[in-house]
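Worked example 3 (structure in, sequence out).
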């Protein structure tokens, strides 16, 4: 089928402000806002002169006041030092005088002191000798008592020895009788032990014979039981090895038909021929021609290019027959359409239903993610070029999502575009004839304001950028079916993205917007175009019998401080809403690949594992029989061992009784002997001697303990004598020569009081000087703030164009909402630094340009910046947009995008702009085609005699917005 856009997309009227790859970048820094990086012929207002004069006077008077204050403080400090030194000299002299008097008195009383010391030493010696004598008397008494006890013991022992000699024969007879009794007891023990051993051995022999008979009978029974269990297992094993039939369910993978791009041309083919150019040229280069004007890449833009026949390839593999056959990835190349083989659902004359819109949203979301991932994986240079300043070089993007949150934004964008009659050639921006609050950026800001505040608070001290942009294209169908619309949208997005990926000078703006790694969700809107819109020249709509649509892609996201890890963590949070396209995508995925289950039968030859499972019961029975056999044998052995243990215990008890009988006979013999010896009066001399010696040693030990206490008491008494006598000596010496330490302490305290008083006087003087300085600085601040307000009000409606001033018809809101910045004068600690902050700076405001056809205008510079918030100048080696040549018949192929930081470091304070923050333009322009410009920026002139002030304003506005033009019309 011939594409429905053939020959209807080359020429349209200019729509001012439509070609935008730009956005407002807001920051909390106090950098000046510039509409251009070289502002010439700026006029200085009377208020500016007055401001500078007042500021100069302030600097001079504050410096003089500070100098005078410093002089007074230095004089006071010098006076303090002199006073302190004089008082210190006087104090030291008085102390020296006291010490000299004290030394003289000591010399005068030297004799008396010596006499007192001698008297004290003599008294201590007398008392110490008395204490030692008392101690020695106590020790001598102890020694005498020990000698008396030792003599008494010797006498008692000699008497016992004499008595033992007289009873010697009687003792010998008693001992002989005792030994005979012991011999009789031993013989009885031997005979009783032998009888017990004989009884034990006989009983053990009988038990062993009985056990052996029982064991033989049980072993025979066990063998028969095991034999029967093994036969049963053999039968079960034979049955289990027989093959058998089973019902089966086979899983059959079903791969659905998926259309493929109809060309084999790849992006690297183009790169190999023309090279990669990732930077936008400067003012001296021509606006580039998008690469889909080359035959090598023509297939990505509807199969057409200038001065060439239509590509009519309708390969079957590139022709889907239903929505389920649409590819979900997004490789370069177009799809064909065949109305005769279209099996998709119809689209009514009223347009797409809500369900059909969700299907198209699901496909478009999948294609956008496919493009992002394909470029990152296979064409990394382009992805890195877009994200080189955003922290995502060589960092894979997170997939976009389409959620209820994004759908609400998309639906509101469609409603506003419909309300304000915005056609498919214009973005959802103010320049398309809608109020600011209806633009896509305002809708997104309102929807994300709570999230912005939360992130700004969470990442305090870091810059939080908003990544917001809008792409726009047209969708139509020659046949009113969902498949025709889907193929038309697929091919349109091919041109919008792959068609702009490679360019002689830069990456196209639509591709740049989509490749930004900071975006996380996309609201895809479908605005039904009116007949009036489709009838416009350059609308690109040829098949007007069926509804046509402007399709908007509003991308939304945040970049946290250009840190990929922080950004991806925020992207992973559950703050972006609930997906509304999962069911649609899953339906298509299931149709393209699923698994069917088919019933059947098959003959199964049992495996070893199967046989093992089938005979498990019989195997268990055999194991149980063997276990029971072993248990019966173990029971017999256990009973046998128990009987042996019982016999052994009986034998041990008999032996114990024999031993007890022997011990009783020995004890009785000893008792008889002791009684006989006692009757004779005989004693054990050795034991008696030990008793006497023990009593003596106990006396010696008690005396040693007492002697230690006596020595301690003596030492304490002597120490107390010395303490008492020395205290008397100290009192006598202090009476003769009193101490001067209290007088010296009093003099030192008086000197410290003098120092403290001087410090207090100096501190009070400094506080007074500081208050006077601050009061004068505040007076100048108030005066300068009033001048600043007058200047802001005066410049609010003025725009400088070359040597002319244009007064706008409506006032620009004050950038600071009535709040005036306070001028920072030098502080007391940095009083000599010259501050420049607070001076009035000229601010460029946009002009208003009508969109009617105009006479060609000479080229004017366009200033954009590829940098983020804090960079306000375009460096010579960084990207800048080319110059613009305007013609009456050039179509506007545009995209619109902003990246806005919503928070900066907490150390800076910002003046409030339209969104309570200062803003600077950050643009990645869509540069497509222009006439070459041969002169450098500095040499470009504007012939003001050949154009009106309105034309000059239009040129300046377009330059400020970064507008460029293309030779082809389709995407915006």
């Amino acid at each position: 089928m011939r594409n429905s856009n053939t020959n209807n997309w080359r020429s349209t009227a200019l729509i001012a402000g439509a070609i935008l790859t730009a956005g407002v970048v807001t920051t909390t820094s106090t950098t000046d806002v510039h509409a251009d990086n070289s502002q010439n012929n700026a006029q200085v207002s009377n208020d500016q002169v007055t401001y500078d004069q007042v500021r100069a006077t302030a600097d001079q008077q504050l410096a003089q006041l500070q100098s005078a204050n410093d002089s007074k403080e230095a004089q006071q400090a010098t006076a303090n030092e002199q006073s302190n030194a004089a008082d210190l000299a006087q104090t030291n002299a008085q102390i020296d005088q006291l010490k000299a008097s004290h030394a003289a008195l000591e010399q005068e009383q030297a004799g008396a002191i010596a006499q007192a010391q001698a008297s004290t030493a003599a008294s201590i010696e007398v008392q110490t000798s008395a204490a030692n004598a008392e101690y020695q008397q106590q020790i001598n008494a102890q020694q005498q008592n020990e000698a008396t006890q030792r003599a008494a013991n010797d006498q008692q022992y000699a008497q016992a020895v004499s008595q033992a000699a007289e009873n010697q024969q009687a003792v010998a007879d008693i001992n002989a009788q005792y030994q005979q009794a012991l011999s009789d007891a031993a013989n009885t023990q031997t005979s009783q032990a032998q009888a017990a051993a004989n009884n034990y051995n006989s009983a053990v022999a009988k038990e062993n014979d009985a056990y052996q008979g029982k064991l033989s009978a049980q072993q025979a029974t066990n063998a028969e039981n095991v034999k029967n269990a093994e036969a049963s297992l053999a039968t079960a094993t034979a049955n289990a090895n027989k093959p058998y039939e089973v019902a089966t369910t086979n899983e059959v993978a079903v791969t659905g038909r998926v259309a493929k791009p109809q060309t084999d041309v790849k992006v690297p083919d183009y790169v190999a021929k023309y090279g990669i150019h990732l930077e936008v040229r400067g003012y001296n280069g021509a606006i580039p021609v998008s690469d889909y004007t080359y035959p090598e890449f023509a297939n990505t833009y509807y199969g057409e290019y200038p001065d060439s026949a239509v590509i009519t390839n309708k390969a079957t593999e590139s022709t889907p027959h239903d929505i389920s056959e649409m590819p979900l990835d997004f490789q370069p190349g177009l799809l064909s359409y065949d109305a005769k083989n279209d099996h998709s659902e119809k689209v009514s004359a009223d347009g797409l239903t809500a369900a059909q819109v969700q299907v198209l949203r699901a496909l478009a979301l999948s294609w956008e993610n496919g493009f992002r991932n394909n470029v990152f994986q296979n064409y990394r240079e382009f992805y890195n070029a877009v994200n080189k300043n955003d922290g995502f070089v060589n960092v894979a993007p997170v997939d976009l999502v389409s959620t209820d949150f994004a759908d609400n934004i998309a639906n509101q964008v469609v409603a506003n575009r419909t309300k304000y009659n915005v056609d498919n050639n214009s973005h959802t921006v103010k320049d398309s004839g809608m109020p600011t609050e209806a633009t896509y950026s305002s809708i997104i800001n309102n929807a994300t304001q709570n999230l912005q505040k939360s992130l700004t608070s969470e990442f305090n001290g870091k810059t939080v950028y908003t990544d917001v942009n809008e792409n726009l294209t047209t969708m139509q169908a020659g046949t009113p079916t969902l498949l025709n619309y889907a193929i038309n949208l697929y091919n349109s997005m091919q041109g919008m993205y792959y068609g702009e990926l490679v360019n002689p000078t830069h990456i196209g703006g639509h591709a740049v917007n989509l490749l930004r790694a900071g975006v996380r969700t996309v609201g895809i809107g479908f605005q039904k175009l009116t007949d009036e819109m489709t009838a416009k020249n350059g609308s690109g709509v040829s098949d007007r019998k069926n509804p046509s649509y402007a399709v908007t892609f509003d991308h939304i996201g945040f970049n946290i401080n250009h840190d990929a890890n922080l950004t991806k963590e925020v992207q992973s949070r559950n703050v972006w809403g609930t997906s509304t396209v999962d069911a649609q995508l899953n339906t298509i995925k299931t149709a393209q690949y699923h698994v069917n289950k088919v019933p059947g039968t098959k003959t199964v030859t049992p495996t070893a594992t199967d046989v093992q499972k089938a005979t498990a019961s019989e195997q268990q029975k055999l194991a149980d029989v063997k276990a029971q056999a072993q248990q019966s044998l173990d029971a017999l052995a256990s009973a046998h061992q128990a009987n042996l243990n019982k016999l052994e215990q009986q034998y041990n008890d008999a032996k114990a009784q024999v031993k007890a009988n022997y011990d009783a006979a020995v004890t009785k013999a000893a008792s008889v002997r002791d009684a006989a010896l006692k009757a004779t009066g005989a004693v054990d001399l050795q034991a008696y001697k030990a008793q006497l010696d023990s009593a003596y040693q106990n006396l010696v030990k008690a005396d040693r303990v007492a002697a230690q206490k006596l020595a301690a008491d003596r030492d304490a008494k002597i120490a107390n004598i010395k303490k008492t006598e020395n205290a008397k000596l100290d009192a006598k010496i202090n009476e003769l020569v009193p101490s001067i330490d209290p007088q010296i302490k009093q003099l030192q305290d008086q000197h410290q009081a003098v120092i403290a008083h001087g410090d207090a006087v100096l501190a009070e003087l400094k506080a007074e000087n500081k208050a006077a300085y601050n009061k004068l600085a505040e007076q100048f601040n108030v005066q300068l703030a009033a001048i600043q307000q007058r200047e802001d009000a005066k410049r609010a409606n003025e725009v400088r164009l070359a040597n002319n001033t244009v007064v706008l018809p409506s006032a620009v809101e004050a950038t600071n909402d009535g709040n005036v910045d306070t001028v920072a004068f030098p502080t007391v600690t940095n009083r000599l630094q010259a501050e420049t902050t607070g001076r009035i700076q000229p601010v460029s405001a946009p002009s208003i340009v009508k969109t009617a056809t105009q006479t060609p205008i000479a080229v004017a510079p366009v200033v954009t910046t590829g940098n983020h918030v804090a960079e306000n100048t375009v460096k010579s080696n960084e990207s800048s947009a080319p110059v613009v040549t305007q013609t009456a018949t050039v179509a506007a192929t545009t995209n619109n995008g902003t990246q806005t930081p919503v928070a900066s470091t907490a150390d800076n304070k910002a003046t409030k702009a339209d969104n309570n923050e200062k803003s600077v333009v950050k643009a990645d322009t869509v540069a497509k085609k222009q006439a070459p410009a041969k002169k450098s920026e500095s040499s470009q002139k504007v012939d003001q005699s050949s154009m009106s002030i309105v034309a000059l304003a239009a040129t300046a506005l377009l330059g400020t917005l970064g507008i460029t033009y293309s030779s082809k019309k389709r995407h915006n």
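Notes: The longest strand covers residues 244-255. Strands lie at 22-27, 244-255, 464-475, 519-528, 549-560, 593-604, 798-801, 804-807, 895-903, 918-923.
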